[in-house]
Amino acid sequence: MNNNSITLCRCMEETEEEKFRRIEEVIDEYRNEGGNLIPILHMAQGIYGYLPLELLQFIADKLGKPLSEVYGVTTFYSFFSTKPRGENTIRVCLGTACYVRGGKKIVEKLKQILGVDVGETTEDRKFTLEVMRCMGACGLAPAMTINDKVYKQVNPDKLESIIEKY
Ligand code: FES
Fold first, then answer.
1. Is the pTM here over 0.85, yes or no?
2. What pLDDT is recorded for position 3?
3. Which atom of ligand 1 is nearest to the CA of 140?
C-alpha cells in the first residue's frame, strides 16, 4: 500500500505550544482590523477548544489590550466558553411549555446519568449539559437538543438509550 495516499489529521496530537503558535498567527492576521477581538476569540476557541484564562491573557498581551476587556467580551457572549467543553452539547429546553411538561425531570435524569450538574462537562469530555430557553418546538414539549439534532416529546426513561448513540 502506498503510504503517501493516506493523510492523517494531526489535530489531536498538536501540543500546547503549537496551538498557541497557530493562535498567534491568527492574531497577527487580524491585528490591524477594527473589531478584531470577536473573530480572534472565535478562531482561538476553534483551535484550543475553549478559552482558559492563560489564553485570554496571551491574546490580551498580543493585542495590547487589558485582560479585563478580553475577559469581559468572552463572558458576555454565550458561544464563548472559559471551561473545557464536551464533544457533544446537550441542551434541555426550560421554556414555559417544556418546563410544565417535564423539562425539569429531564434535566434531573440527565444529571444523574452523566454525573454532572448543569453547565458542567463529563470527565471523559463526551458531554456538556446545558439548559436553554424556548426553541420554538413548544407543541412537542418537552424538547432538548444534542448538538444540532432536536429531540421532541422526550421521555425521561428513553434518555439513556438516546445518550448511548453518542
Ligand atoms: S418551551 Fe420548549 S420549545 Fe418552547
1. no
2. 44
3. 3
Choose the residue to mutate in 91, 98, 132, 152 for probing ligand 1, maximizing ligand atoms within 8 Å of C-beta.
Answer: 98
Below-50 pLDDT ranges, the chain: 1-6
pLDDT of residue 54: 97
Q: Exposed/middle/buried for 66, CB within 10 Å: 0-12, 13-18, 19+?
A: exposed
Closest CA to 56 of 41, 43, 38, 35: 41
Cα(94) to ligand 1 centroid in Å equals: 7
Give me the residue label for grid cell 467580551.
Answer: 73
Is the CB of 135 inside a 6 Å radius of any atom of ligand 1? yes
17 grid coordinates: 505550544
Give the pLDDT confidence score for residue 4 in this predicted structure: 43
Ligand 1 centroid from CA 91, angstroms:
12
Average pLDDT, the chain: 91
CA distance 163 to 161: 5
Instruction: Tell me the best of 138, 144, 154 to mutate to test the pocket of ligand 1, counting ligand atoms within 8 Å of each CB and taking the most.
Output: 138
Count of alpha carbons within 13 Å of 29, Cβ hemisphere only?
Answer: 10
For residue 162, the number of C-alpha atoms closer than 13 Å in the C-beta half-sphere is 23
User: How many whole angstroms separate alpha carbon 150 and alpha carbon 142?
Assistant: 11
